[in-house]
């Protein structure tokens, strides 16, 4: 059983497409050129031509305004938006070949910022834990003398502080690139069941997909290895004494694993790292790289395959909706669901440690 807990404008430009037959060079007459009005706005012309006016329409407007017109040649003027064309759109219409899940993010920073930010996140997480451990005795807390509820409360505060510090580092380093594109660090609760980008709809799809993929991965590992790996270093095993001990402990654990950890990890690994990687790699490759880093960051080598598969499912769900609420919801249901199921089994008298080793 896998539990993923935190271990540590564009300026739009308009292009003018001008084609003529015969060529402009053959239409020059003594004196000034008669085609300049096609390349720049005439002083008596208050508005631009609308997109793609025909030659007859242009001549009719010019005659009404008293502007000299050429007597020969066929001309057309067409305006279009370069940004929309680059995104596979023209005049606001999609080509029908755009797959949201394959689109890249418009990332304003360079690779140096990515490395600096990820390193700063890891160091700040570690240092926060060390500082908290050093300050705890001076604040009058004795871990060895605390009951289970007090230990759960301390763990919740520790995770809350670490989450705030790491997110502060991410937003502090990326804030220098304001204004950021709308789809970076986006948490939007609108249209939860939209077929293309509904965060709750795709969270459900992703959760089912993640559960199936992780179960198949675990079964394959058991089949090829012949035995289940030991999990004594797993964060879940370290939380076993708190599971089901009281309502306070359970609430604190759900808050840690179902709220704080998903918010932190999805913002860092999907919201920042994965989105940043799409500047240099295709989106599917970026998903796989970020999933590998996500799995390694949990420091549980025996569960790397399952965590990698879970991270991949989280990445694809985020790529589909471009809304961080989607992977956060999947992550939250995954983690808190494990805690609640184990709590129920504990209350029923089952040996949770034995069940985890056998799962």
Automatic annotation (TrEMBL):
Statement: the UniProt record of this protein carries the keyword Transmembrane: yes
Database matches in InterPro entries: Rce1/LyrA-like_dom (IPR003675)
Residues of the signal peptide: none
Molecular function per GO: endopeptidase activity
Full protein name: Uncharacterized protein LOC104597460
Keywords for the protein's UniProt record, in alphabetical order: Membrane, Transmembrane, Transmembrane helix
GO BP terms, alphabetized: CAAX-box protein maturation
UniProt domain CAAX prenyl protease 2/Lysostaphin resistance protein A-like: residue ranges: 251-336
Domain of life: Eukaryota
High-level lineage: Eukaryota, Viridiplantae, Streptophyta, Embryophyta, Tracheophyta
Tagged with keyword Transmembrane helix: yes
Organism per entry: Nelumbo nucifera (Sacred lotus)
Transmembrane segment boundaries: 114-135, 155-174, 199-224, 236-260, 280-297, 332-350
